[in-house]
User: Fold this.
Amino acid sequence: MSRKSYSSIASQRRISRYVADDDVFTYSLRVAFLSYLMQPKAVDNNATSEAEAREKEHTSSRISGAISNSILSIGDLFKDVTREGNKSVKFPEKLLKVLDTKLANIAMGKDAAYSDQLIRRTFAAFYGASTTDQFRRQMKENRKIEEMILMFATTATGVLRRDPSLAGDTWKLELNKHIGMFVQMLRECLRNVSHVSQELTTRLDMYAAKLAPSPDSTDSGYDTASTTSRRNESISSPSPLGLSMNVMDMEMAKSVANLFGFPLQDVQREIYQMKHFCTEKAAILDLKTCLKNLNAGEAFPGRREDFDSDDAWNQWRTTELSHLQQLMVIMVQFNPELAKSAPSEALPSISTGARPGSVYSSTPGSSSRHASISSRRSVALVGSGVGTLDLVAEQIDGDDEIEAGGNFTFIPPNPKRFYKRLLELCIQADLDAMANLPEDQEVSLGILSSRHIELINECALRWRIAHSYRVACFMDVIKAKYEREEVPLECIPEGLQMIAKAMNDIDISRWPKADSDYLAEVYGSLFNAFLSTLYHTLDALPGLKPSEISPYLGILESLQESGLLARFDIDVLARVETLREKVREVAERAYLERSKELFAAPGVNRALPLLLTTDTIEKNAKLLDKRFPEPLLGHVDIVALMCEVQIPMFLGDLEANRKRLYESSMNGPTPDVPIEDIFALFRRTKSILEMHQAFCPNAQLKFDLVSFFEPYVRQWLVTVDSKTLQWVQGAIAADKFEASDAGGHSSSIVDLFDSIRSPIDFLKDLEWVDEYQEARFYTALSKTFSKAVEQYCRNVEELFMSEMFPRPTDYLQPQKQSAWLERAKQLAQVTGEKKVIPFNFQPTSCVKLNNIEAARRLLDNIYTHIDVDSVASTLERTAPPVPEKQERQRFLFTVKVVIAEGLVPLDSSPSSKLDTFVTLSDEAGTRLAKTRTIYETLDPRWDETFDLSVEKPLWLMLSVRDRALIGKHDTVGRAYLCLDPRRFGDLLAHDLWFDLDSHGRILVRVSMEGEKDDIQFYFGRAFRSLKRSEGDMVRIFIDKMTPFIQQSLSRAVLKALVKTGTGLDYTKALDNMTAFYRNALGPSANEIQVPLPQSEKPRIRPEALSDYEIEQAITPLFDYFEANLQTLNTYLSEETKEMVITRLWKEILAVIEALLVPPLSNVPSDMKPLSDKEVDIVFKWLKFLRDFFFIGGEGVPLETLQNQKYRDVVSIRLYYDWNTDVLMEECVRMMQQQLHSAPTMKKRAKTVYAQRNLGTIKDRKREKREQKEVTNGETILRILRMRPGTGDFIAQQMQIIARMQAEQEKRVQDQDQKRVARPRQQQLQQDVPPLPPLPS
Assistant:
């Protein structure tokens, strides 16, 4: 049946530009049919079995002869390759992954073709060896297929020698068989890998042919005449035992049919027609014609004119001759009859009784375990080296039966064009198949399926398509598909990577000129396409993102680095210059559009459009600099080009508006252009000029910044209001401390800062010439502001303290006592402790706290309004020379009185407590500072900070006093501290413990900084005064609630609850059903759960208290919170309310923690551990309190409640019941982990400069929140304080921690001293002098 009979189908075929699809189908089917012919022919198994039976008795006598005819040295297998001296062929990296999967399936028995147990054993042993790092590293480095076969042979030898079923030397026969099957498996794996070099597949086919069963020996291991005769008959006879010629048995032919869309029955008819002329003899004739063409200088498969050098031609010719000869040898090995048509000098002597094994078959050539492999002489190439190959070509050339030219059976007229069309059809077919896959299924970027890869590889082998052309052709096809949006962009880099590997294997200078020119043409087309895409993408500037162009840039850079663009006559620099012009064009258009929009906006302030323009330029420049830090393609600097165009355009607009700006800033008391905007414009203009200098250092701008803004500087006048402190008194006197707005603050703070802002506004209306003098004036004004703020804080604190600590005669409790007060009295009667009278807060106290918070915001506004940092920079840059006579420098010490421990009551009663405060006095006995009083404790914590300004060493006396209601306060103990600037010159915070002269000790934290006449310093002092006042007032709020919290959450209440329980009041139960609802709903999903150790059993308490009874015990505390927190919630601002509630929650956590464990100390504690039942009650209280403040998500956020302190308290439950020895071991482990993972690094003290505005204060808070403190080790130490016999261990651990911290702090201090310091700091870092004598 003629191919033209498919008229209805052929009419629908797409015809390539040069090749018809029908012709491609014909030649592809011929190659597929030839692949089928190369399969092994079946033999008569019955005849073979009879022969084996007849000769079985002679096995032992003939086995040695069979072994001698086998390849006993693996070197024999590779000798022809090594003899040729060609460059080593590397296998693809992807082969290792495919091989790994194949070996795993064989080892697990999932591959039926390798089901033999002994084969599985050797393959499994090699699979185990291949999984080692050494093997993978070695294979990835050299990728030699011969080395992999050699390693398999070594592994298989070890396995087979130890097999008891292989007696004597029979294991050697089995070894040859296993090596042959391994080579066959490698060939199968390569079919699933794309772009395999022809030399590699040819080499494996040659190895497979060598390892095929010997023609001179039977499956039993020795030769017989009868079996040889029957094998000859099996090859020559067309009996049913031969090839079936059925298309259903031809996998590659079916692939061709599916590819071109023909029914199998039609393909079957085509095969019946072509089998008469598409024979193995015709295939070997094609190969011999190629050999003759090489010698005759024909165009196909190649000639000297196709290469740039003799070396390239000789290398290619040698390789091609070797490949052709190997293919001929393989075909003769598979069909010895073909040897009759080949010159005897060109081919080895092949016995006609050979039984071939197919290179493409998936099954081994022999089913017998003891099958022999080809002898050395059966496949050995004649001679060695180039001389032998030339001799073969000459002998072929002398054969008159072979005509040079292009008369081929299996090779099309134009193989490259046929190959390209076949590749296009395969890729399109696989793309169509991928379209029907699920969206979430991953597909290969190589696109081609395994069956199409096998077809393409076979056609390339038979059509003599070089690997260089194949990779270039694949790139060309993928490029065309991408341009039609049929494949994703990711396929382009995949193709470029394949080309890079090909060029790495064979240098492109040795490629055929047509292939390298073809690749250069493809690269040039790609470069132009993606450069055009990049060109149009730049229209998105300045909003362009790197992700939008990075794929294109990567491809363009790869193309540029290849060096092939010059061969395509592409001037890269000229093309890049078009991109630069494009950026300039987009920058100009963006500026004009933005400028038109801004100047068209309504308003008389002509400075505003210019200010917004500078914002846009600076913002875009920073954004683009962050996104594109490096020039595109090494030449297109987007940021520099944008600045090069837009900044001169802005300066032109600024110069054009010079007169109008000046007139608008002078037209009356309220000018159209505020002076603030003028100076803001000055700062922005200076900023973008510096930016232009940084990005465009070679471009010069003709713009005088100083002369432009000098008229506005002359407007400034210097005025200082000497009545600033009177503003404070007047503002407070007129204030009723009632909330005046939603912020909760009163009028006094607003009036005060209105007065402070007035001179600033006045100053901005003045003209000033010398910027240093202007900065000095701001400094003097800031000093006045600082004093005013400090005075306001002192006055407000005095009023606040009078409300929080009223005198008994002036303050009367309400006659009618509330319910919570009654419960508190009942609670005090039950516990037997001293009665605590709860304190009610006043709204005016809340307003005063709001005022302090509002003052911080207003002061920060002043800071920004003045631009303090700019003024400080001006002072530093333009300061005049220091005069010879210098004033003595002063230093500002920050002294924080933290805590005292181990105080002893003055009377002999062991239950007595102290009401302590601390005073700081100088050498003359003058009181410099005093803390508040902490009541009813022997371990008071004050946490109060004071600033002391000194100019020489100063001794301080720290007196701990016991407050007396009547008479003189008693002195509990004294300590002495020397404030010497030379001893604290490291500017670090120092924690100093002082032993009192009586009993106990006190902790003081001291830091120092130089007191400067500096604007930032004065603002920092003002902010610190506000912060301390705010902290002191919040602390007073908490101190007023703390006694009642401690009494409600005390051990006395706990033990009374555990001992007697609380009778169930059903009336009260109905009023408090929320407790039951909480119990019924169970724990919250957000509740932190700490699992018990595996060794602990769950606690079983048959008489456990109900949640209602546990909650009832602290109901007075809930009622107290509801009564007072309502006041705080109503009158406090959101910021201050958050501070108070957060501080209150920390205090509750501290009280809960104090119930469970004593404080950390190296002194043993007499505190007893709680029982299991008591511990559970404490954590129930904690849960109830957390839920009380959380209010189902409407109250305090859960992340605030479950802070680090909360997690530390919860973690106590985990370790509370552990054995003492186990706790000690865990403590040592956790302390070591904490010190190694997060070593304590002493940080600089919280200086005045670090608190100069709200921004720096917030940054410090954020850094503090981000610190992850691990305190489980300290928690365990606190638990151990309640265990007997642990004092030495605790003291030892604390000494280790202190020593390591001291070493780390010393290293930090040494590093700081090595840094370049100011002269003042260098002076302070001299040798620390000894302490001066203590004053008498």
